[in-house]
Amino acid sequence: MTHLRFPVMVHGFFDMGDFSQGAQAAVDQCTHALRVALDRTAAQAVQLGRRGGSDLDLTLTPEEEQFRTELRAWLEKNHPGPEPEGAEESFQFRRAWQRRMQQDRYAGLTWPEEYGGRGATLMQSAIFNEEMVRAKVPSAANVLGLVMGGPVVIAHGTDEQKRRFLEPILSADEIWCQGFSEPDAGSDLASLKTRATKVDGGWKISGQKVWTSFAHNAKWCMLLARTDPEAKKHEGITYFLMDMDQKGVEARPLRQLTGESEFNEVFIDDAFVPDENVVGKPGQGWMVAITTLALERAGLSLGSAVAIKIQLRELAEMIRELGKDRDPAVRQKFGELCVKAETMRLNGARGLSQVIQHGVPGPEGSLVKIQWAEINQAMTEFAVGVRGVEGLLTDTPWSYRLLRARANSIEGGTSEIQKNILAERVLMLPRLR
Questions:
Q1: Which of 259, 308, 331, 345 has the CB geometry, 3.0–4.6 Å to 26, for a possible disulfide?
Q2: In CATH terms, is domain 4-52+300-425 a member of 1.20.140.10?
């Protein structure tokens, strides 16, 4: 039988000495069943391991252990402190933090060294995401440029595009956003209607994008537009780098339940993009877009699991303070959340092994995305319910998390679309259309 071994990556998920005794007991009751289930399905989960054997072995190498130790020490020494309130204050705080990270080449961690990165492996990237979450430091201001924009330019861009765009991404001098989703082309991205018409020296673009994160701060937009309306749906699409600071481009923030405006509508009316800002060849933007979307989740799942774990610890402390740690129903629900979170983490590790082994993400990313959304929403609902009437207050961390979690099953690919991916690629069920 293939064995699952995670002696280092687990980091004592079930070793919750700071939890209340009652909550720990609930977890203990569920742990054995989880381990039995994992042993039963391990052989089907993975056929080949990371180290070339038959095991899925994510035990860290000495070099990876050293990387974690050095990174943890660096974060302790350079922790920027609490993030300030206010959208602009927070943005400038995260921009300064990114610049500090880049001084030691942590901002573009996985980028090749010749482009200002460290050339880190996927495992080191996963360790990095875990430690960033564990240290409770803010994300970089230019996260889309670092995770998607820069790697896409490195993979598909010209030498001139690399010289022009990469350094300002790392320094956060130029913020990037992603112009993919449209009012009638969200999950079905290939149905986009934004049009690009060839003109002398470039392209004129008109259309509308929506759910565009950071557009109000962005200098550049990774934009998909249809350049051949007669081509098949996935063809005739071109990948542009559009300057947001020009006439004909307007970003309008969208107010959320939380009162924040993370997302935007972007209205484009005859905006100009020069030929030198086309990534890849005209009409082949879909393949470039697939690279972008694959990069969006690579290496992030384990960090998400750590974030859930941290919030579960906070929840356990709140349960203890409220004197509800001996309530059987509370203990059972809390234990259920812990087991689901550990299952998500193991699926994330399996997905990481898939990428390390084959070089491309597998369908595991869709499963982790579904699990993360369901667990986070269930956890925040449970936390607010445990507080009783005080849970109705709107100025508490848990009430904020409850409202923000509503987007989890929509953003980054809806849960329905992720289930379709699993149905078609794992269960091999026929497509609806």
A1: 331
A2: yes
